[in-house]
Amino acid sequence: MRVKEVADLVGISVRTLHHYDEIGLLVPEKITETGYRLYSDDNVEVLQQILFFKELGFPLKKIKEIISSPSFNREEALELHRKMLLEKRSRLDKMIATIDKTIKHSRGEIQMSNKEKFEGFDFSHNPYEQEARERWGDKAVDEANAKIGKSKEEQEAMSDAMNAIYRKLATLRNDSPESEEAQAAIKEWFDFLNKMGNYSLDAFKGLGQMYVDDERFTKNIDQFGDGLAKFMCDAMAVYADKNKKQK
């Protein structure tokens, strides 16, 4: 199949397929003398795998690493996709039910408790912990976890403080990341992170870059305001560079 046929079959743009080819994620079976990309059935199967990973929030760089690995097993990956999608569906079903109940509550048809208003939301686990362990090692993550309050009340207070900083930064996201207000707020974020772990200025700057490189982080942070992840990335880089010069 030619690139346009694949794009129409899947429902993605030709430009997306060109991009996947350019970064070596999905290279067509052959290119004709006239420059047409031709895709095989094997290419289509790989594309399906890529889009499953993408649906689950994996960044393209990580997808390429996974499917290029000699140990990659397509059937095992599909089983994992299925499990993760079922879990995602379960969470979404709960949230849809909560929305339906909230609509009825707003109309005065039923009464909802405060607890019922948040059914389906789950912030009790850290979806990035395993990735953090792979990036920085078990010791760093264990030390960070040890610094987090063990009681439920302490964990809730920590979560509230974190969300407050996100909300503050979200109100500044259309300003310059170099502004005095932005740098004061991003310092709060730096200080907060160092209550849980041990972040050098370089690590802080690297974390900010991850906010835009990893689609999962971007999506999570931008819930507080579109463009917040990019703003935080820029502000964190400014903060790190500025404070390294002062040392």
TrEMBL record:
It holds the Pfam family TipAS. It comes from the Bacteria. It comes from Rossellomorea pakistanensis. PANTHER family: HTH-TYPE TRANSCRIPTIONAL ACTIVATOR MTA (PTHR30204:SF90), REDOX-CYCLING DRUG-SENSING TRANSCRIPTIONAL ACTIVATOR SOXR (PTHR30204). InterPro entries: DNA-bd_dom_put_sf, MerR-type_HTH_dom, MerR_fam, TipA-like_antibiotic-bd, TipAS_dom. Residues 1-69 form the HTH merR-type domain. GO terms for molecular function: DNA binding. Keywords: Activator, DNA-binding, Transcription, Transcription regulation. This is DNA-binding transcriptional MerR regulator. PROSITE patterns: HTH_MERR_2 (PS50937).
